[in-house]
């Protein structure tokens, strides 16, 4: 959101509110989750991982290709991880899912660290 160029209207604010809103809903569902809601959490995680698509056009004008690639790779990692999260019969499925979540988070971290933060300093 910090990389979105000025003049993008309310898009940065909308993205900020949506990301934090979905994150809050996910946390609340996790606290009060039942087995029936087991699929809802991963769907929220996928939605959060792919929020970059909403701002792709202005981001592609503001970020280097490598930064966009890292954002895209993070979304792919989150999405692939959900497959393992839901695969109950696979040994260590939860650990594998966490690996993909960490990979997606690392991709997003480095996209911010290398391609957003230097523009703000």
Molecular structure report:
The chain crosses the membrane at residues 12-32, 39-56, 68-87, 99-116. It is a multi-pass membrane protein. Zn(2+) binds at residues 94, 98. This protein has one domain. It is built from six helices and no strands. The protein has helices at 11-31, 40-49, 56-62, 65-86, 93-115, 117-120. α1 packs antiparallel against α2 (40-49). The two termini are 15 Å apart.
Topology readout:
Elements: H1 11-31, H2 40-49, H3 56-62, H4 65-86, H5 93-115, H6 117-120
Q: Give the N-to-C terminal Cα separation.
A: 15 Å
Secondary structure class reads: mainly alpha
For the report, how would you describe the main beta sheet? none
Rounded mean pLDDT score: 83
Helix content: over 70%
The helix-strand sequence is: HHHHHH
Binding site for Zn(2+): 94, 98
Membrane topology: Multi-pass membrane protein
Pfam family, one: HlyIII
Transmembrane segments: 12-32, 39-56, 68-87, 99-116
Summarize this structure briefly.
This protein has helices at 11-31, 40-49, 56-62, 65-86, 93-115, 117-120.
Main features:
121 residues, mainly alpha, 6 helices, 72% helix, globular, membrane, metal-binding, AdipoR/HlyIII-related, transmembrane, metal ion binding
